[in-house]
Specification:
two-stranded parallel ribbon; 5-stranded antiparallel sheet; alpha+beta; 7 strands; Thiol Ester Dehydrase, Chain A
Length: about 150
């Protein structure tokens, strides 16, 4: 059974968070997504917007921004409603394979450890394409602020 797309803590309390809690957020990356992201960030690298330029390279076509995958990681985090938390950021972010227009990316967000003294939850985040290939990974730390 696949992981749910949303998780809602019943109590919203740190003490009730469980290691192993997982969800998966899925999105197909469109040309519009890439162009809108380029416009928002100002990253108009030919890797993302110039099809003729990319035909000559190893990938043979345009690819999505790696930072767009971090956006998907954030979207998954937002669906993991543990309680009143804030993200302290993403560490060990790696973009390990290209994301092409039309790829469907499943972002899995899993709580892997808890720090009761600091009231923090650490998650491993993995983005995979429709072929099951890992395209990006990171860790995320969330702090409870209630």
């Amino acid at each position: 059974m696949p992981a749910p797309e949303y998780f809602q803590s019943e109590s919203g309390r740190f003490e009730d968070v469980k290691v192993g809690t997982t969800l998966t957020f899925t999105k197909t990356i469109s040309e519009s997504d890439v162009y809108l992201f380029a416009g928002i960030t100002g990253d108009f690298s030919p890797n993302h917007i110039d099809a003729e330029y990319m035909k000559q390279g190893a990938y043979g076509e345009r690819v999505a921004h790696g930072a767009l995958m971090v956006g998907l990681m954030s979207a998954a985090s937002a669906r993991m409603r543990l309680g009143r938390t804030v993200s302290l950021g993403y560490d060990r972010v790696r973009f390990v394979a290209p994301v092409r227009f039309g790829d469907t990316i499943a972002t899995e967000y899993t709580i892997v450890s808890l720090d009761p003294a600091k009231r923090r939850a650490m998650a491993e985040v993995t983005c995979r394409n429709q072929r099951g290939e890992t395209v990006a990974v990171a860790t995320n730390i969330r702090a409870f602020v209630d």
